[in-house]
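Help wanted!
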Amino acid sequence: MLVDFELIERARSGDDSAFNQVVQAYRKRILGTIARLIGRPEDVEDVGQEVFLRLYYSLDQLRTAEVFEPWLYRLTVNAAYDYLRKQRRRHESRMSDLSEQQVMMADAAAGGKRDVEETRRTKIRETVHDLLGKISEEDRILLTLKEVEGLSLKELEKIYRVNENALKVRLFRARQRVLKAYEAGEPEVGG
Amino acid sequence: MDRMKDRLDALWVEYREATPDTDAGPNFMPQLWQKIEARRVETTSVFRRLAQICVMATIALALVISAVLIPRSNYEEVFYSGTYVDILAAEHSNDYVEALPAGDYR
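Answered by r_m:
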């Protein structure tokens, strides 16, 4: 826990300054998770604000302060899921890939010496976003939380509110699907 | 298959390293509070609108009820405007005639 239970209790009881402190404590971590879940840096803050907005209006439903972190992650997952579904509907995923490529091309055209390491990172991000764009939003989020965020099965159980066996089955299937997409794509980077 | 799996596992690690946590810009908190306030105002205005609709519906219902019931009650008042004895007399005005034997009016 990044904050103590007493602060969460105060935020729950309507103390706005306590809520501010909770947001400031979790903001960086939640925005990082959102960035890896949705893959569009320009929308990360919007989705992050949506998460904390939902948190503000649902804090009174929180049973105990002990379950705060899974609760916050659950809100994050839901907001990311809503965002990804909207994106899929708008068919904008290709636009995001293009925008990053365009930035790279503009940099190259300007004669700027782009850092080799940053170029490599950009390529990795593109590869993963492209790969995750080929599977469902549910698989994408689950795999990102497990493989990239490094959450344990116990933590995922609390977020998804399902038992370990059901979670293992879901993870297995999601891994199979992403592996299939990865094999089909045969990207150049990846180890 | 295993080789691809290993490559994919390595890719996840590289992706995690390539996307470090970055903090929000200076406008994050002010914008968040604006959104919280906007939602609060929106919720309040929804309740206010609901209350207005309820009041309007109540007034309309009262008008309809009064439009239907008031003329009827007026009619009933006209119908029962006489005293109880008058009404009885009116309803049974022929009883005396029927009770008397025919031709015995003198």
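OP: Thanks! One thing I noticed: DSSP finds four helices and no strands in chain B.
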